[in-house]
Write the structure tokens for this entry.
Amino acid sequence: MAKKKVKIIKIDLDKCHGCRACEVACAAFHSKPKYGIVNPARSRIRVYRNELQNVFVPVQGSFYTKAECPGRHMYRVNGNDQSTYDEDMSVCSFCGAACPSRDLFKEPDSGLPLKCDMCESDPPLDKPMCVKWCLADALIYEEREEEGEDQPKLDEVDTALECLVDKYGIEKVIDGLARMTQKE
Ligand code: SF4
Ligand code: SF4
């Protein structure tokens, strides 16, 4: 059976103190030019903070969806209890989706989705930038092998196109691409 490499970032909530260095590192690494602009609104990791309750939850941008989650006010705890959270700490606080409910994980100018890409780069990094700059060691990087084939990933361009098609319709997107091609 073929093996695939799986990369994950584990989070130790007890160690996160909400400094947001992870947001800054991610935004700087993904800026164009690289390290040229630091705008945490463009980060693919965002730290939910509730200082009164002393809660800090780093969340990675995960996927794009055009639909709101119907169960977003409910959270299943340990597979049993369902709890509701008030607006200040809704289940959305733990979610990495770019969805219509909020502005998180969207590029502030274009509204296009921002998804964690594990800092894939050439040459590869030893560890992702957010992990490197989390001096509290709240983010722990792990690589492991699992059985199974590598699935072709939807890359950023595919996700951006999907988002544009949802927003403007396929015909407008095709027209726009055709115009851009003619200009070249
Ligand atoms: S850098 Fe580490 S401690 Fe600081 S907010 Fe991010 S995860 Fe938390
Ligand atoms: S792994 Fe890289 S892309 Fe993902 S949140 Fe961390 S710094 Fe951002």
